[in-house]
Write a structure and sequence with these properties.
The chain is α/β, with parallel strands linked by helices. It is built from 9 helices and 16 strands.
């Protein structure tokens, strides 16, 4: 690589590690220091709802251990043999996960001003097992919805394309390079233990009305469903959703694999669920009623009512494209999911003000949609690039919201 390009790459890397160096009207706070204006600027007219902070978590004074099975019933459930006729998945090196230690998770970003209850949206950087162990101290039983898009064990490395500013087209050097975001190559046993331990912690974080949506595909969906049956209970299975899409495929001896699986479980039978409805696409209502010419006159009022109401959405979704069809959303992050997909999930299984959590944050679609829909959020990712991408995305939403508020104020004033 020529020295000029190498220097540009190194400069970009340093800038990336320090966070997004952009002039914004949001504040940055570090522990033990007053709000300061540095690489992120401070504007005196910044909107109070759009206060942005960057913090580091202090080290705990003492080591805490959390028992994951607190009630006698839970302890018996953890020790019991599987019921006859109900399978349990085993793998080499499977270990019970009955307690965890409080870890000093690194809080990277907080957004907004504290509300009347002191709440601020938060993003953590680190291994999500340690982050969730940290969150148990304050948020055990408090999270209303979890959506995760974990590694699929796809045997691939995922990379993000990085554009290098200032490299002219006349030069022979490449004007971009690919940065590895994460590897998705596992042994089967490692992957299953990895997901098993994290699902146990997620269940502990869920509120009694809470739900979890696990996004996966054909690689490991069959194993993950058995693990979720064990961790969350077979009676709390709600749906196996098929998110269908289309596109070119190189399949030779099998049908092209063109759907992802989203496993939907709840913590209890009292989960929040706001039934999604979609527009009828034919003259047949999903109760079997026909909108034929023969009964239009006598059932005109009913027909109009049913058309306005729409039909209940089934568990196969064909009306949401993959993210590459939504050009305005693309961030160059591998495995990015469309906002429409998260809108449907968040609106169905939470209410405004509820707490949404995604510990495989990636490009931050869950956090972005939660913010737009008036939900509180927590996020975490071990990849610093994901933290930077999500932070920029959230700040852009906050700026856009502030500009809209200022415009309305101007029109009213």
């Amino acid at each position: 690589m020529p020295w000029a390009l190498l220097l540009r790459v190194c400069s970009w890397a340093v800038e990336s590690l320090e966070g997004a160096r952009v002039a914004t009207p949001f504040h940055v706070r570090r522990p033990g220091h007053a709000i300061s204006a540095g690489t992120v600027g401070v504007a005196s007219n910044s909107h109070p709802r759009h206060h942005f902070q960057r913090e580091e978590a202090p080290m705990p004074d003492e080591q805490l251990t959390f028992e994951l099975h607190t009630s006698e019933e839970e302890k018996q459930h953890a020790r019991r043999e599987p019921d006859k006729g109900f399978p349990e998945l085993h793998w080499r090196g499977k270990r019970p996960y009955r307690s965890t230690v409080y870890y000093p998770a690194q809080l990277k970003e907080t957004f907004g001003q504290p509300d009347e209850n002191g709440w601020m949206n938060k993003i953590f950087w680190g291994d999500n097992l340690q982050v969730m162990s940290h969150l148990l101290k304050e948020y055990r039983g408090q999270v209303d919805l979890i959506y995760i898009d974990p590694p699929f064990d796809s045997k691939a490395d995922y990379k993000k394309k990085i554009e290098i500013r200032g490299v002219g087209s006349a030069e022979s050097d490449s004007s971009s390079f690919e940065e590895k975001q994460y590897g998705d190559i596992w042994t089967n046993d490692e992957y299953l233990q990895f997901m098993y331990e994290r699902l146990i912690l997620m269940r502990k974080l869920l509120s009694d009305k809470g739900s979890i949506y696990l996004h996966c595909d054909w690689h490991r969906s069959h194993y993950l469903r058995i693990i979720m049956d064990q961790v969350l209970g077979m009676n709390n299975f709600r749906n196996e959703i098929a998110w269908c899409y289309t596109g070119p495929a190189a399949a030779q001896n099998n049908f092209p694999r063109k759907h992802d699986t989203i496993l939907f479980y709840s913590k209890s039978g009292d989960n929040v669920f706001n039934t999604p409805r979609i527009k009828h696409k034919s003259g047949v209502h999903n109760t079997g009623q026909l909108f034929s010419d023969s009964n239009i006159t006598e059932n005109l009022e009913l027909k109009e009512q049913l058309e306005i109401q729409g039909k209940k959405l089934e568990d196969w979704w064909i009306d949401i494209w993959s993210c590459d069809r939504y050009r305005s959303e693309l961030l160059g992050y591998p495995t990015q999911k469309p906002e429409a997909l998260l809108e449907r999930i968040i609106e169905a299984s939470s209410n405004p003000g509820d707490l949404v959590f995604d510990c495989f944050m990636g490009s931050g679609t869950t956090q972005a949609v939660a913010l737009k829909l008036g939900r509180r959020f927590l996020g975490a990712d071990i990849n610093l690039g994901a933290v930077h991408t999500t932070t920029k995305r959230i700040l852009n939403i906050m700026r856009s919201s502030q500009s809209s508020d200022d415009s309305i104020q101007g029109e009213l004033g």
